[in-house]
Amino acid sequence: MASVQIHDVRKSFGGFEVLHGVSVPIEDGQFVVLVGPSGCGKSTLLRMLAGLEKITSGTISIGDRVVNDVQPKERDIAMVFQNYALYPHMTVAQNMGFSLKLRGADKSEIDQKVNRAADILDLRRLLERFPRQLSGGQRQRVAMGRAIVRDPQVFLFDEPLSNLDAKLRVAMRAEIKELHQRLKTTTVYVTHDQIEAMTMADKIVVMQDGIVEQMGAPLELYDRPENKFVAGFIGSPAMNFLEGTLKVNGGQPWVETANGAKLPITAAPAAGNDKAVTYGIRPEHLEFADDGIEAEVVVVEPMGSETQVVARIGTQDIIAIFRDRRPVAPGDKIHLRPRANSAHLFDKETGKRVN
Amino acid sequence: MAAMLAERAPLPRFFSRGALALVLGLYTIYTLGPFLWLATMSVRTTAEISADHYAWPKVFHWEQFRIAWVDSDFATYFWNSTIVVVGAVAVVTLLGAAAAHALARYRFRGNRLVYGILFSSIIFPPQITLISLYQILVDYNLYNSLLGLTLVYVSLQLPLTIYLLEGFFARIPQDLFDAAKIDGYGDLEIFRRIVLPIGMPAIATTLILNFIQLWNEFLFAVVLITDPDKRTLPVGIRAFMGDHFQDIGMIATGVMISVIPVIIVYVFFSEKLIRGMTAGAIK
């Protein structure tokens, strides 16, 4: 196990820069998730960590060693790929023991390590099968087994669950998390799915357009996003955004939308009166209240445990989630009040948090 | 009602099955017929064949095979064909696979240009190159030599081979190569231990196609080889066709001899051929 330091790393393809100086410190044993929309550079960063892409500038260290010019096989890492990348002409056992064989390990050692990994992942009875005879979930487990067998300093996962169906994805998510808790190996995990990021990570790194937007513990990002992008990216359904201007009258501040709705906030931010802001409120922080903002119900989605209501305020649609079951129907007029202490304010122009 | 339906349902299926069998049967006779006819002729003398084209052999003249093999130099032709075709196919397969892998996997300047030039050479009929190839072989003292013919065969089959294999290799997921790199393979080992085994169905397909194509190749062989003892089988068979007299019996025997290796190669690789053809369907 080892810590990983990514320091001011840049990457250009031809003259086109795709990573603009990314720094991510990763502690020993931490589970770090790189998340962001496709094209944000997260996979490129992971591939640079693995040694599959050259580093244009900056340094990457694993443990105390700078690995910029170290071959992938000598970095003491193991990687799990989106397409599993199992060798189709080898059995499960051969796939798992392959890297050890290349390193010149003797057969008894290979067998012992393969069996140990197979026990961890419940693959014992599949060892003699070929990858084509396995289901998607089984293949993913073999890919993980192959990584475990190497007993590496760092595990790298590149969107490992995106080829699985929804149900299996949830199951494998828990399995990977449990595996990490058991092995405590430093892990870097790439995904575009913010739910995976939220549920698995010790630390989330949100990326967009080749820069790190924010990093921190999952709930830290959820509760206090530093900018509008992170606020909209983390959380499902996504945070509601309403455009308005900041008003302060005496001690009582609020945000006023174009159609005159008054959105409550607790304290006036440093930004002055009449500043154009984006008001962010998560769906679960909207309540029914007679003195709330009038909205028209557009769609009602009962999920059983909760009800999602899409409602229209003026011309903007917002989503609200309620734990109790309310007899609302499309076309109904309802009154919603955002919880003032859960409101997020962002500068309309820069998108930066202002409260 | 349900019972009636149950009774009636198998009928159309029976008919469609029957129709299918009929069509397949007719097609088999259509394709196999000439071959069987040729096989019967190969054990009949030319005189017998002239008397009755389609008769079943009364006496099986197996000695015709010995005569063709020993007296008519078929052993030499067969040996020449084997050297040239096996040599050419081996080189084409290895070189073609390596080139296809490079074109499919490596980003380098001019990759698509090379591919485009190779592909464009498939479009032109081979006859166009015949005269220039003749001249080149004469210049390099390769005219009328088996080595020269082998090289020509390599150049003839290489573009199509690269084209077919590139398409197959490009579909091997990049992840597999990345995994191999992390496992500790170098570029050459990746080619030898990953690309070749995984690409085997496609490689076997091109191998069969190239083998059949070259084994039966006549035009270049007849132009570029003059010595009787350097003839390949298709040219050797041609020797039985005189201007006035054609030794049909011996031609049939020669053709039978020349067909046998094709069948052997096909049977040996055909399972892989079919898998290669359906490779897209299985992931």
Automatic annotation (TrEMBL), chain A:
One annotated Gene Ontology cellular component of this protein: ATP-binding cassette (ABC) transporter complex, substrate-binding subunit-containing
InterPro entries noted in UniProt: AAA+_ATPase, ABC_transporter-like_ATP-bd, ABC_transporter-like_CS, ABC_transpr_MalK-like, ABC_transpr_MalK/UgpC-like, Mo/tungstate-bd_C_term_dom, NA-bd_OB-fold, OB_MalK-like
Keyword Isomerase: no
Natural source organism: Tardiphaga robiniae
GO BP terms, alphabetized: carbohydrate transport
Keywords: ATP-binding, Nucleotide-binding, Transport
Gene (name only): ugpC
Family affiliation: Belongs to the ABC transporter superfamily.
Record-level Gene Ontology MF annotations: ABC-type transporter activity; ATP binding; ATP hydrolysis activity
Function: Involved in beta-(1-->2)glucan export. Transmembrane domains (TMD) form a pore in the inner membrane and the ATP-binding domain (NBD) is responsible for energy generation.
Protein's recorded name: sn-glycerol-3-phosphate ABC transporter ATP-binding protein UgpC
Superkingdom field: Bacteria
SMART domains in alphabetical order: AAA (SM00382)
Subcellular location: Cell inner membrane
Membrane topology: Peripheral membrane protein
The keyword ATP-binding appears for this protein: yes
